[in-house]
Amino acid sequence: MERKKIEKEDFEAIISGTKDIRDFMEIDPLQGMVSYLGVHTASNPDYLVRAIYEMYEANLNRKLAVKATVQLFRSVGLGSGGLNNFLQKLGLNLSPAEFLMLVFQLQNQQGWGAPFELVEQSDKKVILRNKQTFESQVMKDWKMPVCGIHRGWIEGVLTAVTGKNWFCIETKCHANGDDCCEFVADQTEASWKWKAQAIVKGDSAITEYIEHKPIEGKIKLIDDPVVMMPRFIFTSMTTSLIKTMGEMSAGGVNYRAYMDMGKENVEHYKKMGITDPNTLANMAFTFYSQMGWFRIISMTWNEAEKTKTITLEHTVESESFGNTGKKVCFCTAGLLTGIVEGAFGIKVRGREIACRSKGDPNCVFEIKNRDDGNGS
After folding, report:
1. What is the pLDDT of residues 100-134, one digit of tens each?
2. What is the chain's Cα-based Rg?
3. Which residue among 74, 180, 324, 329 sits deepest, i.e. has the most Cβ atoms within 10 Å of its Cβ?
4. Measured between alpha carbons, how far is 16 from 18 in angstroms, rounded to an integer?
5. Distant-in-sequence, close-in-space partners of 286: CB < 8 Å, separation ≥ 6
6. Do 46-190 and 233-369 have matching folds?
7. What are the backbone dihedrals phi and psi of residue 309, each rounded to the nearest 5 degrees, phi first?
8. Cα separation, 26 vs 111, whole angstroms
9. Cβ pair 96, 158 in contact under 8 A
10. How far is 140 from 135, CA to CA, in rounded Å?
């Protein structure tokens, strides 16, 4: 199939509405080829879109599945810079919002949803809406804002043509029962603090910010180097310490080491400019939870006894050791204690009062205030 040459006048005709993509569509069914505006493409059946959402939902939840879809299609939108450069070579210079509208005009004419209306545009904000998107129709049974594909496109396209970072939210969604799908995009700097707070609020998951280069032996989480640590390290480390110094002393060493790690982790967040103690503690708890250390069921505070009780479904230690008939989570006890002490600036003492390795339903920890008024 030989590509037709596309001129400036062709794009102007599409923008003005005097032509549509049918005038630039070429189909060769025997060769299995479809081309729009000289670009090879293919159909996107509804079950493919559903498969993407449900693939992410299997490991996340629906809200985070939508956000993962945003990230996927953001990378697609970033590829639109080539089209923008091509238009500029033709002498067609569009504003970022105008270019975004052209992209969606080409998309909706291929079945990706109803035409868009540009509600507002400025250098740092773009608002647009349509009656419904393709994914809002496909995923309407989720009954929530689901337009991750279009949010991702908006972020990627605007980032590609401006060189600045953009963040898009969906304020109305056809799948949520609203009368339209409305998107608000703002130019914003995606700082460490901003990303971390989004994770704590449940708007993002750490998987969005993991950069894994296995061939180079490198992993980064929000620009910080991290490592994967198999859980047998806990059994190996603890067994080695027990052989060296005995069971009680080994537990104390693990507790102290991980307590220091918890405090250092909080100090890292403080350097980001976060000062609220509850935010600091919740940020640390969330990150360790999403990295596989434990799953929090509940946290309660007894004001009279100055005691925080944290119930975990499991810990990496209880999973690693299995049923031993005794409590094993010294590392987790120290970690939780260090987080609380570092975040609130008080002296505390933590202990595990129930453990799955001991046969209890969950691992439960008490963190008690031990400040005697003299800071000790």
Report:
1. 999 999 888 888 889 999 999 999 999 999 999 99
2. 27
3. 329
4. 6
5. 199, 200
6. yes
7. -110, 125
8. 16
9. yes
10. 8
Neighbouring-strand partners of residue 127: 120, 184
Q: Which residues pair with 240 in a beta bridge?
A: none
Determine the CATH number of domain 46-190. Answer: 3.30.1380.20
Q: Does residue 80 contact residue 103 with C-beta atoms inside 8 Å?
A: yes
Task: Quickly tell me which residue has 């992410």 as its tokens.
Answer: 56
User: Which is higher by pLDDT, 40 or 138?
Assistant: 138
Q: Compute CA distances 107 → 53, 125, 252, 326, 371, whole Å.
A: 20, 22, 61, 61, 63
Contact residues for 304 (Cβ-Cβ < 8 A; gap 6+) = none
Is 2 a residue whose pLDDT tops 60?
no
| pLDDT one-digit tens code per residue, 319-342 | 999 999 999 999 999 999 999 999
Cα four-point dihedral sign 213, 217, 223, 229: positive
Secondary structure (DSSP) of 325-357: SS---HHHHHHHHHHHHHHHT--EEEEEEE-GG
Q: Is the model's pLDDT at 37 over the cut of 80?
A: no
Half-sphere exposure of 351 (CA within 13 A, CB side): 6
**Unique residue bearing structure tokens 């990150």:** 287
Q: CA 85, CA 34: separation in Å to the nearest integer?
A: 23
Element holding 219 (H helix, E strand): strand 218-221
Sequence letter at residue 355: C
Residue 247 tokens read as 């069971």
Task: In whole angstroms, give the CA distance from residue 158 to residue 156.
Answer: 6
170 φ, ψ to 5°? -105, 115
Joined together, the tokens standing for residue 275 give 């000062």
For the chain, give every domain's residue range: 1-42, 46-190, 233-369
Burial environment of residue 165 by CB neighbours within 10 A (0 to 12, 13 to 18, 19 or more): middle
Could you please state the CATH topology (level 3) that the domain comprising 233-369 is classified under: Muramoyl-pentapeptide Carboxypeptidase; domain 2 (3.30.1380)
- Distance CA(103)–CA(118), nearest Å, equals 13
Least confident range of 211-215, 261-265, 293-297: 211-215
Angle of helix 330-344 versus helix 247-270 axis, rounded to 10? 30
Cα 58 versus chain centre, distance: 15
Tell me the pairing of strands 307-315 and 348-354: unpaired
Burial, 254: exposed, middle or buried (Cβ in 10 Å; 0-12, 13-18, 19+)? buried
What stretch of H or E contains 282? helix 277-290
